[in-house]
Write a structure and sequence with these properties.
The chain is an alpha+beta fold. It has nine helices and nine strands. 28% of the residues lie in helices and 12% in strands.
Length: 312
């Protein structure tokens, strides 16, 4: 948007040049970039399903190779009905962010991963972030091993050349297709570095002040009317005094994560290589514990802690 290559109110599927003959529900042409960022595009995984986790079905129904790529999942979803009118309400949608990454590729002419690395992360000194891989023997150097909760059932592998059941974190879903909504692997240190640059109080600033303001502004009605917090464009936001707390959690079988930017100048992240049975309650406990820990610190270091971890 800052480069003038996109407008937040541009129609997403028009940018992707999706032909009407492939579309079952014409309302998809009403979906904007802003709708996708705010999770109001029209898909509700609670009412239907999350297409990012039905890899084999999506590939099979359109005759594409398995496991289903993000492009395959988009083709499959063109043949499905929306769950609600675009812009009418919030429903968290991994698929909406899948579309956003394909729009980045369309507009820039680069792969999503290369664009984000070259234009955003590497200039910030974040050099080891990348899209993860699904299988355990494709882990990168220093990547942790992921564990499901002890009583978790194994899953049918999404890879056709792997027969039988597999641990869900290693083949129960196709991580490569989830690049823009949970596919990145990085460290807690790099997540903090990214959020510090994004929130703009210290140099280097990733966004112009007016862009950052747009990112965390309350969506227009009918979304989040009268609520104490809301989902902006990529962050959950709770206004506090003249500022706000921003945060995001995420989890998959084998991971649980939280990233927080506070209204009084702090950023923290916690990453786990497992997810308990009730991941939501777990992350709430982690969030409360980190706030408590921060309040109990009486004196903070005044020097740059990134330097001791090999950063400039």
């Amino acid at each position: 948007m800052e480069q003038g290559k996109l407008d937040l109110d541009a129609k997403a599927f028009s940018i992707l040049n999706i032909t009407q003959s492939a579309v079952k529900d014409r309302r998809i042409y009403d979906i904007t970039i802003r709708n996708l960022l705010q999770h109001s595009g029209g898909w509700d995984r609670e009412k239907s399903f999350d297409p990012m986790f039905i890899s084999n079905r999506a590939a099979s129904e359109i005759g594409a190779p398995q496991p289903a790529s993000s492009e395959t999942i988009i083709r499959f979803m063109l043949g499905q009905q929306l769950d609600f009118d675009p812009g009418s309400r919030f429903a968290y949608s991994n698929f909406g962010y899948c579309i956003l990454s394909r729009i980045i590729e369309k507009v820039t002419g680069q792969s999503y991963q290369n664009y984000v690395n070259n234009q955003i992360l590497i200039p910030l000194g974040i050099t080891q972030a990348r899209i993860g891989r699904s299988l355990i023997d494709e882990r990168v150097k220093n990547e942790v091993r992921y564990y499901d909760f002890p009583s978790a059932l194994a899953s049918q592998s999404v890879f056709p050349n792997i027969s039988g059941l597999a641990p869900t974190p290693y083949g129960g879903f196709y991580l490569e297709a989830m690049d823009s909504h949970g596919g990145w692997i990085t460290s807690a240190i790099d997540l903090v570095r990214f959020a510090v640059a994004l929130e703009g109080s210290k140099s280097p600033n990733l966004l112009k002040p007016e862009t950052a303001k747009t990112m965390v502004s309350r969506p227009q009605p009918p979304l989040w009317v009268g609520t104490p917090y809301y989902y902006g464009t990529g962050w959950l936001v709770r206004p506090v005094s003249n500022d706000a707390n921003w945060w995001h959690t995420g989890s998959l079988p084998g991971t649980a994560t939280i990233l927080v930017r506070t209204n009084n100048g702090f950023v923290w992240a916690a990453l786990f290589n497992s997810r308990p049975t009730n991941g939501g309650n777990f992350l709430l406990e982690v969030d409360n514990a980190l706030w408590k820990a921060a309040r109990e610190v009486t004196e903070w270091p005044t020097h740059n802690l990134f330097k001791q971890y090999g950063y400039k």
